[in-house]
Amino acid sequence: MDASLGAQEAGAAMRTGIWLVGARGSVATTAVVGAAAVGTGAAPPTGCVSEHDDFREVALPGLGELVFGGHDVARTPLPKRAEQLMEAGVIPHGLADLVREDLVRADAEIRPGVTAEAEDQAAAVATVVADLEEFKRRGNLERVVVVNVSSTEPPPTAHPAHSTVRALRRALASGEPVLPVSSVYAMAAFLAGCPYVDFTPSCGARLPALVELAHERGVPCAGSDGKTGETLVKSVLAPMFARRALRVRSWSGTNLLGGGDGAALADPARAAGKVDSKARVLAEVLGEPVEGGVHIHHVPDLGEWKTAWDHITFEGFLGTRMTMQFTWQGCDSSLAAPLVLDLARLMALAHSRGVHGPVPELAFFFKDPVAGGEHALEQQYAQLVRWANGPRVTQ
């Protein structure tokens, strides 16, 4: 065999697939465009944590080596979706045209998504497993990481089938629809031997039965709810108050969201999980609950942008009352997409090391990290760097 051809085939075999649930959404589209642009040198890796010097010696798949596919119920092709994001100012002008071939290639790998109305969840799981296995085979991929970036679901109702793998299999075999859609994908990912990431606050892999299945199948999982805006700031400011021994009396946040995320969270049932995950960092870092809470409002005119305004009251020496306010304005897709790429690369690393079950060392990326643990951002980052640069670990 020609030596150069052999090298090309060896390189192809090392490629990592990213299977995006919600593959035609804004975050997924931005991630595909960004990976292609950075991989070819057309854009810098701004916002990609895994491109820090702290990870230079870590054996991560290159951004240009990532292969994309996914599921979605939407039908707008990726090239068209990228054009829409370009017009909205999310993607730089002309970039969608520059990576059009990559978008077309990724769009060809998108399959019809599972809906909440699916009557036979066992069949839905089997279909997703087959899609994942075929994607891996067709792309000659070493592994596939499944990342959920679809719309947030309402919190699930507790069910006995959620407790063990055996009970879950029995319920699905009987035709009983017991899983949220995100958990259908998580179960399929584990059965297909794929790492799974919950980038949304949806249930996903957080059911005890699915955690058991992840260990049983020897695959890692991580989540949940990507930390991209207001909560990112909270995870820096809350430790400041705690270390300075200043007592926080109240912390109120108002979130204005446009786009698909804002529309989904206009439903109070769907917003419940998001509000819970956003509030968790304060109680964990400050050591006690505080008054206030988070309020989410859908403002369609904001489009792909979001605004968060926080008002904090705190108490200093001799009980002196003081206040602090901050405003965060950002483009959610631009903030989230590089983290999706980071997580896919790091989960590929975890899988290659034989890690299985929840990966608490990836807490840096999430509002509500699996397995609890540290919530202060700087400590989370130090933990992440130590883990990524550490020796091969098999749980």
From TrEMBL:
One of its GO terms (biological process) is inositol biosynthetic process. Transmembrane segments: none annotated. It comes from the Bacteria. InterPro entries: Myo-inos-1-P_Synthase, Myo-inos-1-P_Synthase_GAPDH, NAD(P)-bd_dom_sf. One of its GO terms (molecular function) is inositol-3-phosphate synthase activity. It holds the Pfam family NAD_binding_5. Residues 229-333 form the Myo-inositol-1-phosphate synthase GAPDH-like domain. Belongs to the myo-inositol 1-phosphate synthase family. This is Myo-inositol-1-phosphate synthase.
